[in-house]
Amino acid sequence: MFPYRAHFEHCRSLVAALLLALLVASDGAAQSLSVVEELRLSEGAAGFAGPLADGDGFGASLAWLGDLNGDGVDDWAVGAPLSDGNGKDRGAIWILFMRADGSVASARSIGDGLGGLGLSLADGDRFGHALASLPDLDGDGRRELCASVVGTSFGGTSWPGGSATSLGASLPAFFEPSGCVWHPGLQRLVVVSDDGRVALVETDGSVQQNFWVGGDLEAVALPDEDLPVVYLGVEHPDSVIELDLTTGTPTGQSWDLTPWMQGSNNRGLEALTVVQGLVYAGLQDTGEIFVFDLQAGSAVQFMGIIPPPGGRDDVSGLHYEASTDILYAIYDPDNLVLELTPSGTALRSYSLPGTFQEGVALLPGCPGPMATFVVAEDNGDLLTYSTYPASCDGSRQLWGRGGVDILFLAADGSVQSESWIASGSGGFGVSLDAGDFFGSALASLGDRNGDGLQELAVGAAHDDDSSSSSFAQRGAVYLLSLTGSGQVSAWSKISATSGGFGGTLNDGDGFGASLTGIGDVDGDGATDLVVGTPYSDWGGGQTGSLWTCLLDGAGAVTWQAELRGADIGAQAGEALGAALAQAARDWTGGLPGVLVGSPTGGDSDAGAIRVLALDGGGSVSESHLIDGANGGLSGPLAAGDGLGFGLAVAGDTDGDGMSELLAGAPGDDGAGNGRGAAWALELKRDSLGVGFCYADGTCPCGNAGTGAAGCANSAGTGGSIFTSGSASITTDDLMLSVSGLPTSKFGLIFMGDATIPALPMADGMRCVGGSLFRFGARLSDGSGVLTEGPGIVGWTWNNLGSAGHILAGDTWSFQCWYRDLKGPCGTGSNASSALAITFVL
């Protein structure tokens, strides 16, 4: 099992209402998309030997590397961010050198001290959390690999403290500690017992004072180190009482928390601490942390809820250390202490010695090399642990800020050099906050604005812009322009308060948890962006949603629209948008498209992938679901596999003319508990009509192509014609697309009322004959796709004589001629495959 859980001044009517008119195409118009070939990669499968270890999460991230080693077959990178390496959860990346049949010829890993990596990793860094492949930056003919290091761990690690020293011998009889806090002004530990007693304890364990207050005291917190008062956390009714430590009596100030904290089965308030003036109260029943502003006169302002990391319950102790900005939380059933940001982002966790842990405090010495960690145990003991360096290391304040390492790879997959981009490093002059998660997602945008520099989009899903709350986690995206050495030359930020973004983000949405470019949607010459908010609660908790952001050349948002997961069938808890990738045009009928991962959705909660096609009128014209019960995937998949946690498109890896989809399932248990797997899937769209004129031995200069395409061209592929929409002359929604063309080259689609034996046509073959008619010249886009339509039927009636009018019952064949000045036969042009379509009313 995997451990994770506005107005637009448009230039063209093409994007008049992109994603606002959320209309899924009718059955009569939609065409099916299904898996026709699949291959599961994991330890011991498809030639991959690993080794992996339990919990590695292989498949959490994926990237296509092109032909790295020059053997004619494209290669892949697969992240295993929970790989232990030389510690715990340091992370690793596997470089997979592939065979043409999709199996692994050889593999090597990159990690802490492995594969030439110069970056020094620490426990919990999660190197490889996100991956992206960049075009060749340094001119060596190989693509570069970007890997993020987010510095967070949900798995237990070995306890960094020394052995325990008991202070419990001097406690009063039957005193069972349920909470503790250090008071620096009094130089005492304040310890509470669930029978209503409070004790002031020296660091040697001797008890200086002992008060009886009454009530079920479960926690204690320090509101002001300069005042001799503490807050006592009372369970049932859940409330906070202010206690004067000089007199041992309550001050009369108290706050009722029961309107918000509702624990069942006598499992109420269990933990308490003060964070930057706010009171954090832990609820035993759910593990949630409730945040309050306790005001004079017993007034309470509820600020929000921090969900438990990993779904844990029974948070039994809390302590906030202001010097390092770290929140410590004890989860009793798991025997864990977690280091969190004030917003609740898990930074690190440790397996805690002992049992019945009910409170946590730090004694003087932090930040320093010899801090003392105190744990109150509800069995009559109070334990201290010395040498707790992680809590006192000044670098701990950087945990959760994140960073991106650009790896310049050699042909053998080892790291030749690297460029580290983080807060104030690598030319990136931004001071990130702890827990921002810079690197939560990565996406290569190419030279999106024509300035000659490659752009990289980086998510910071827990950025708190637009909220005064330190636990907002609304998210942000940074756009970085990179030099040839991988340094940042310029950057811009998109968030609720930056970069022209006009949408509404809510606390916890996680804007930037996933990213993908989607091409130039609005025709302004700049690549546009889709951003995931997988934790959006529209339609239910963590249903997820997507934002399409149209960008200008400077990276500012000119228009945005939200696509809510519930509107396309996503369910609560599905986390739609946890991963994104740009869909191949042959999967979407030539339309712009996006792949969307839902790792906790789908059949049996094993994960799911949706392929969304966006039509020219701004609607979601098609939505195709791939999971254990839909889309032709045989699997098998099991609950918790997390299919869709990582996504990438690999082009035509096996040379059959079809693009491959790489989908991670990091929770796959086939090779061991949570070792993970990656699926290579070939998707095929059921196109209208009958295809023909495929490349074979009759191509003019022996330039036979592969798969359902025409003769090979300078792009190394052949032109393949396919459709979206329907053959209805009434709806007139047919769109013809040709993929596999050289980019930015003119071409045109022509049609005829007969088919003929293949005749040479420049570098290709013509198989369409009879009465011939041509449509207007078009330019192939940056993906090598040329399109015609919709409105094809109407165009023939408005521009052609009666012999060229398309009528119901007619069969017309379509083919594309296109320029290819560097083609293999030297004629300067080529032809695609052909398609015969019979039209209906």
Describe this structure in words.
By secondary structure, the chain is mainly β. The protein folds into 3 domains: 428 residues, Integrin alpha, N-terminal (Methylamine Dehydrogenase, Chain H, 7 Propeller), CATH 2.130.10; 232 residues, TolB, C-terminal domain (Neuraminidase, 6 Propeller); 149 residues, Immunoglobulins (Immunoglobulin-like). The protein is built from 2 helices and 53 strands. The strands form 13 sheets. Strands 45, 48, 49, 50, 52 and 53 form a 6-stranded antiparallel beta sheet that branches. A 4-stranded antiparallel beta sheet has the order 1-44-43-42, with no helix packed on it. A 4-stranded antiparallel beta sheet has the order 2-3-4-5, with no helix packed on it. The chain is elongated. 57% of the residues are buried.
Q: Helix- and strand-based class?
A: mainly beta
Taking all residues together, what is the mean pLDDT?
84
Q: Uncertain segments of ≥5 residues (pLDDT<50)?
A: 1-29, 152-161, 366-370, 387-398
Number of strands: 53
Largest sheet: 6 strands, antiparallel
Amino-to-carboxy terminus distance: 51 Å
Q: How many structural domains are formed by the residues?
A: 3
At a glance:
With about 850 residues, the protein is an all-beta fold. Helices cover about 0% and strands about 40% of the residues.
